[in-house]
Amino acid sequence: MSKTSGVKPQRGGPAGTVRHETPLANKNEQGTSWRPIVLSALLTACITSLGVYLTSRYQLRQWHSEKMYTAETDLLSRRLGLVERFMKISRHQSDLMSLNALRQQDLKEMQEAVSNKDLAKVRQLMRQSSEDNHRFDELNSEYQAVMDMAVELFGPKTQAAVAVVLKNHNPQVWEASEKEQGNVVAAMTGEVLLNLGDVPADTKVSASIGPDGSTRTAQ
Hints:
single chain, 219 residues, two-stranded antiparallel sheet, elongated
């Protein structure tokens, strides 16, 4: 019988080492296999969240920009419309003066008719005076409204020009001289683009009255 036949293999040998380390190696391999998946998922989630955030911020900025543009466009339109209204009502200055003179004349004649007890003349003058007063009040109210709105919509130059008219002629602002009216128009056209951020600062706007009474603007 051989001496080596009864020798037991050592546990610390190569065969024993392989049997005990194989499960641990498999566990390490399993532990490292899911890490790329988790990292990839986290990265995808971050990218998605960032994309949503950037999209929402872009939409918000776009909304603010559109809102600002709409407000500025509305302001520009109202200013140009007011320049047109002022230039149209200024052309009725002679009508206002004539109507005012007629009102004074109607009042004087009515007082005489009342003194003479001429009732037919009184009724006639009342109808005539009512028509004159209505037309005068219509034009005068438009003049006053344009002046008030000019102070609200335009800048300091327009406000100063209007203040001169009000100081010298209020409440009959339609009595303003040609120079005073010209100063108001010049100030308004010069400030049409005031505080409009989307319009180039060096843009020039001028206005002139057309033969049909419409305002022509040039930029």
